[in-house]
Amino acid sequence: LFDTPLLLCRNYGLDFEQRFVKRIFDIVFSLIAMIPALPFMVISAIAVKLYDGGPVFYKQKRLTIDGKEFYVYKFRSMIVDAEKDGRPQLASEEDDRITPVGKVLRKFRIDELPQLWNIFLGNMSIIGPRPALWNQDYLTAERDKYGANDVKPGLTGLAQISGRDELEIEDKAKLDGVYAKELKKGSINGFLMDVKMFLGSISSVLRSSGVIEGGTGAIAREFNKA
Question: Which run of H or of E encompasses 205?
Fold first, then answer.
């Protein structure tokens, strides 16, 4: 359940104690979260399957520390051949690839619940920058400026509860960098930061705040319209 010895020897910007405390947090909170999430996951799986008979789950290649690739798991929210050309494409507003069931799952972020398994396995954290797609070079480069790539990607984080899709990529990277900087200050500080982000994420999900398909930079666009 813990990182392999090889991974523990790498410098992620966190010392052994910080990584250990964060890993314990991830294991405990992912298990706790799975309990109330289980009924939603079962209902979602049935709804996805009944809608078109296609696969329940969808996996997508993402990046973690050191640019390593891993597969993140979600409930499928799009039609079966949504990425028939083999390249991931960000969804846009009124995207006709999203199924009616998928719209509900995405609005309340239920489609991301299978990532609790990613967290339990150790290739993600509860709190951290959202894992970038393997071809999102600009996002990865921006995060490098602020040290945000030094910490493990997460299910939710500071950028997610501060505007999510409404924020420009540069602003998201800065916020992820703020989190990474706070995390590096100490294991207790990091633990308290993660608890605060966890509670903030629950509130954000309940309000469906910041969820705009294809809406990166929506705040800036609205400002420019004025």
Answer: helix 187-207
